[in-house]
């Protein structure tokens, strides 16, 4: 009978450890989700800046449909995940 009580006590200890680990895991999961949301928002803002830059700088195409140098630079910056700066159009 004493052996059974020892095992039951051991099981209770392990269940407490598992519960504590699950609580800690939940906190970590929340931090990871917050970080992902922040990174996605940052990327969305940078993408919006690139679109705004292209809309502002690339307004007119000629009859030959050549791509202006500004559009090529904007595309390259976008591919490199870089936000355009104001002075780069000139």
Overall outline: rod-shaped
| Distance separating the two termini | 87 Å
**Structural category:** mainly alpha
- Percent helix, as a range, is over 70%
Give the integer mean of the pLDDT values: 80
**Rg, nearest Å:** 28 Å
Order of helices and strands: HH
Low-confidence stretches: none
Q: How many separate domains?
A: 1
Strand content: under 5%
User: How many beta-strand runs?
Assistant: 0
Biggest sheet record? none
Number of helices: 2
Structural write-up:
- With 90 residues, the protein is mainly alpha-helical.
- The protein has one domain.
- It has two helices and no strands.
- The chain has helices at residues 2-57, 69-79.
- The chain starts with a helix and ends in an 11-residue tail after the last helix.
- The model has no long low-confidence stretch (mean pLDDT 80).
Give a brief outline of the structure.
The chain has 90 residues and is an all-alpha fold. It has helices spanning 2-57, 69-79.
Features:
90 residues, mainly alpha, 2 helices, 74% helix, rod-shaped
Secondary-structure blueprint of this entry?
Layout: H1 2-57, H2 69-79
Helix pairs in contact: 1-2
């Amino acid at each position: 009978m004493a052996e059974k009580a020892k095992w039951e006590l051991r099981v209770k200890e392990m269940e407490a450890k598992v519960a504590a680990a699950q609580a800690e895991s939940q906190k970590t999961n929340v931090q990871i989700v917050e970080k992902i949301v922040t990174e996605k928002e940052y990327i969305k803002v940078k993408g919006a800046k690139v679109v705004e830059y292209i809309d502002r700088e690339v307004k007119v195409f000629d009859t030959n449909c050549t791509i202006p140098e500004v559009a090529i630079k904007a595309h390259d910056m976008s591919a490199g995940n870089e936000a355009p700066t104001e002075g780069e159009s000139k």
